[in-house]
Amino acid sequence: MPFCFCLRNVVKNNELSPLQLDRCLNSHFGHHHAGFLCVCAAVGQFFFFHELYVDKTAQIFELCNSRAKIFLARPRRFGKSLLVSTIMSLFRDGLRDFHGLAIESLWTDRTYPVIRLDFSLAKDFENEEEFLRNFRTMLVLTVRESGLTMPSLSSDAEAHFFNLLSQLSDSSVVLLIDEYDAPLTSCMDRPDLFQAVQKQLSRFYAGIKMHEGKLRFFFMTGITKLENTGIFSSFNNLEDVSLEPAYGTLLGYTEEEIRTYFSPYLDDAARVLACSSEHLIGELRRYYDGFCFDRTASTHVYCPWSVLSFFKKPGNGFLKYWYQSGGRPSLLMRYLTDHGLEQPVSFDRSGAVTDEELNSSQDVSNLTAAAILVQTGYLTIREANDMEYLVGYPNLEVSHSMARLYADELLGKVSRTALGLSGMPRALLHGDLAEAVSVCNRTLLALDYRDFPVANEASCRAVV
After folding, report:
1. Which of 131, 286, 367, 447 could lock 125 by a disulfide, CB 3.0 to 4.6 Å apart?
2. pLDDT of res. 295
């Protein structure tokens, strides 16, 4: 839909607020624009859905109201960058983009220069020199976009940046770091390069620590907490809110929000799929709900990307949108390069991770498969005990996607097409037992029994 792409560009350049955007649509299309499903890419977690907006700004107010340094971890496609954009708009432009939203009656602070460093722009490199060039280019351009002055790109970019900070008044600038771990996870399978990048970033974060008094607010996002990056050791008062119950629903949709905000789309999808709205909600819950980012396990949310993608084309059914668009994050895939998945035959069993695994920064060599699977969204908290969390798959979309990863691990380089696995559903649907048994046998023969022995009924069932 070209028009949706145009709208995203308009909002990205901060030329219109969400409500101004809606008025623009009404004037051009009248009140019949329910078919346009867009994610507003610069005002944060406000998804444009037929004059309806999922308003998370009361939580954003609680996050930003204090002079704090905050870290938030979430999997891909949960809106971390959109949240950073919202915070940037709030501090840089005040309430300009928030008319009619909860924060309008709460926020009284002034505006500030905002420096937003998006480390995903510095994640593609082959050596340390290329990383430094990407990083310094990002640093110079970002600082200039904030309205502050930086010299042209040079090997002294970091020194110029810290000199700039030193000249500012206390609590006079906002620093936002998005996807801080992107450069590190992109090279975690290359130890020498990883250590070199880690060393450069440690120096940078140590410099920020020296000037933290200049910061009105510091906010950083990522997927995981990596030790020895300098950031978690330098900022002794860095507050990790990743599992705080107060922010468990900050990113993602609650079922109440889906029922409240997306009612017209629920009705439309129910009509397309010839089912009741309640049945549809039940299916959405089974496929896309269940993500818990709450140490008390008292809240859970739907994956926003999957919900939006489903409503856009409900006739396609409940596809694996999250997995297809980014469900194979580099952190997980590069970890698997060296480690593999532990015991693929246990894929359908729940497990446990300790509080330390999820809440403490970890050295890359000490990361466990369970912790990485939780941080990347493949596993989620089901129950919480004193020092341990019971974790499992949040929903069918993820469990089916995980089965795909395990199948890749089990089969290695053997093609699923060559084994005829695509014919299994058809064989079962038509009651062709002989073909189903044949596919199972071909699959079992393709496994490496030295690494993955099928020794009992349970392991055979898990493989199948």
Report:
1. 131
2. 92
